[in-house]
Amino acid sequence: MSGADVFIGSLDQGTTSTRFIIYDRFASAVGSHQVEFTQFYPQAGWVEHDPMEIVESVRICMARALDKATAEGHNVDNGLKAIGLTNQRETTVVWSKSTGLPLYNAIVWMDVRTSSLCRKLEKELSGGRTHFVESCGLPISTYFSALKLLWLLDNVEGLNEAVKKGDAIFGTIDTWLIWNLTGGVKNGLHVTDLSNASRTMLMNLKTLDWDKSTLDTLGIPAKMLPKIISNSEIIGNIAIGWPITGIPISGCLGDQHAAMVGQACRKGEAKSTYGTGAFILLNTGEEVIKSDHGLLSTVAFKLGPKAPVNYALEGSIAIAGAAVQWLRDSLGIISSASEIEELASKVTSTGGVYFVPAFNGLFAPWWRDDARGVCIGITRFTNKSHIARAVLESMCFQVKDVLDSMHKDAGKKGEAKSEGKEFLLRVDGGATVNNLLMQIQADLLGSPVVRPADIETTALGAAYAAGLAVGVYKENEIFASGEKMKQASIFKPVLEEELRKKKVDSWCRAVSRSFDLADLSL
């Protein structure tokens, strides 16, 4: 069979949309479809999804991507070898094994309803906020799945009884989708991969299994948790009733980990994905590096049951592209996200305006859930172009904050440099089509930013993992980053060092103004 007759499917389930992309042997997309789904905001700070709507979005995307590829003359029906899955992390679902129905809406990663529960645990546990860091690498935070699961156990009527009966099970979105894809109530597989498991606060980074001490401390029943597997292995076949059936699911990674594979990030190399939030990961190789500067220690990937584990330092930013959506949907300053580049380009600076998008608090490296959004420096001179540019700068300042912490934690030995002795930040995600954003990022970092020819590296990473497990791809092909760099766009800094330092100082002052605002009167 020729390379042109071999295909890998990639299911990319994000925070606001689902996509299914079909790649050929040469990692070129031959068919794709995307569907947006509903975001629910029941109260201030609460964010939910309907798990059944997500399942239906997968069904639609699969069918239409297949139709599109077939219409282009590709024999996908006979050539599809495997499917990889990548997903929004931390988002939490509990459901009934017997009915297949969710017992509550999915609680999304950015939801902050567990703030009071976090404060309670911090006071009660001897280690305070960092009580579980030694085992899982994560602080106690609203961000992670364990706290969301505790809230569900405390607040969903009948859930504890269903757990005792063995009917209620837990999973992140990858687990929910794999269970449905492999049969659901008819023996669906209850599994998760270790990248997603590492984001629950319940997995031990060293043993790569659920941490019994943590489960006991939090009172979470182990029997409702999925089995943990690697990122690249044959998990099970897609069941009858889906647009694609009998094909193995052989790759599964959380979205940011998939992007690391798609970007071919080896030890010492970092990537930043710009989506609803922004997520910066630095591959630390087979060593877990504990952060002293507000970052998370996590799994990068494990590409096979017997493959070595690569770990990472991560900095997670809650609001990046979501701030652009806010300008569009809530303020009406722009009518589409793509308009922000033109609007922001009408001015050469923000005119002294600084915007801190702490809509639901601040993640790394600040970890302040009492922060709220602020826009400072406004004068009569300020117009919507200044605001638009300040929103773009806010994304880049947050990435710089994280990278500065990474440089401190990893040190010179932990970073790979280019031939020109420069640290290169690989970037991806929908927002990176914005050239102004990329130039601002390079300017504020004072180092180059590298954008690949294909910015959808998350879906590509899942396809690579799936293809690796069934022999379509080889690991040395996946990590042949030299060839990929030849096709990349590189943005080099042009901002003067003195002005860069002044802008960073002003940003830090703006961030400090966002603290202690969670209890402002309505």
From TrEMBL:
Gene3D superfamilies: 3.30.420.40
EC annotation from Swiss-Prot or TrEMBL: 2.7.1.30
Keyword rRNA-binding attributed: no
Keyword hit for Transferase: yes
Gene Ontology, cellular component aspect: mitochondrion
Highest taxon in the source lineage: Eukaryota
Similarity field: Belongs to the FGGY kinase family.
Protein name: glycerol kinase
Source organism of the structure: Capsicum baccatum (Peruvian pepper)
